């Protein structure tokens, strides 16, 4: 099952805590998050490394569309 929602950074975690393997909408296309980290010493925002070779900075309170596969129970 695939769960779709919005990820946002309102100074904390949004509805989704982004993880490696999540699919995010970037430039009108879906890309997979290969890695992510907090930029600089401030820790505000997230830098997403995408499987397209691109980097995307997501800052509070920006929102990003996310697809995530949910584990079967």
How would you describe what is shown here?
This protein has strands spanning 2-8, 23-26, 29-37, 46-50, 55-58, 63-69. A six-stranded antiparallel sheet has the order 1-6-2-3-4-5, with no helix packed on it. The N and C termini lie close together (11 Å). It is mostly beta strands and 73 residues long.
SSE order and pairing:
Elements: E1 2-8, E2 23-26, E3 29-37, E4 46-50, E5 55-58, E6 63-69
Antiparallel strand pairs: 1-6, 2-3, 2-6, 3-4, 4-5
Identify the notable features of this structure and list them briefly.
73 residues, six-stranded antiparallel beta sheet, 0% helix
With helices defined by DSSP (H or I, 4 residues minimum), what is the helix count?
Answer: 0
* N-to-C SSE string, H for helix and E for strand: EEEEEE
Q: Provide mean pLDDT, rounded.
A: 78
Helix content: under 10%
Whole-Å distance between the termini? 11 Å
Overall, the morphology is globular
Strand order of the main beta sheet, please?
1-6-2-3-4-5
Radius of gyration: 12 Å
Largest sheet: 6 strands, antiparallel
**Count the strands?**
6
Unreliable runs, pLDDT <50, ≥5 residues? none
Helix/strand/pairing category: mainly beta
- Binned strand content: over 45%
Brief write-up:
By secondary structure, the protein is mainly β. It is built from no helices and 6 strands.
